[in-house]
Amino acid sequence: MPIKVLIVEDNRNLRQALKSLIELSNDLVCVGDQECAFSDLNFDAENIPDVILMDIDLPGENGISYTRRIKEKYPFISILMLTVVEQEDKIMDAIYAGASGYLIKSAIPENILENIRILYKGGSPLTPSIARMIFQNIQNQQIGKKEKVFLSTRETEVLTGLVNGLTYKMIAQKHFISVDTVRSYIRCIYEKLEVHSRSEAIVRAINDRLV
Q: Is the C-alpha dihedral spanning 159, 207, 125, 39 positive or negative?
């Protein structure tokens, strides 16, 4: 059975271009195209789409809201968002609404059919720049969830030494303390930062701007 695709796009030229590309394929079929969100979500039983290409900036009800309504009634439909501008808030809102993929329109023509197939098979097509934005957003959220870490002056000095690539002995000589004392400070630092290695401590120190 061919993959059934619905196009929701207000740009007539792009809508027709997408429809033409789909009709040239042997394993895809366009079951409809519309320029705006429909209040009625009762798809014809024989033409319920497997995949929807959804413009994010539709006139009237936007694509994010429309996606949310569709996913509430037809959770099995995969939705691929199409956008002109990379806006982090809209990208994350679309994902929370139920979108499974996100592409910049300028990158569409050469690989849209393959992205539809990937989406249908359970993948999540993303324009590289958008993928990076999503991961950065998640990483920032995780960093924000971590409690503020308070290090003593000496602990900060020792951690700075680690970040700068100094050995335990070099740190000890620089601050006129013993190597054993350096190890003791490092154990305390690891405990406070909830890490288990020098590399993890350095990454946490840089991300949290502790040094």
A: positive
